[in-house]
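Below is one such protein, fold included:
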Amino acid sequence: MSRSGRATRQGQVKRLIIKGEMSLEAIGRILLVAAVVIGLAGLALLFAERIPFPGKLPGDILLRRGGFSFYFPVVTCIIISIALTILVNIVFWLLRK
């Protein structure tokens, strides 16, 4: 499909969404993305005990002094950021097709 053809199609999809109507193709893509997200969340919960979570990754900062503790999950934040970036890019890629 040419560049202008895709732009025209995207314009049509945007107009349909604004009017409150969605094509079956768009609904199907949304459902597939939702299923993948739910499946990944389920897998994460299944393996949650085996995956090192915040506080257990090398690079996470944990300071304990007397009755005070400070925790900052540096590496965990970076990993979550990378994972969410990849997920969002996949979703946008799927919706753009």
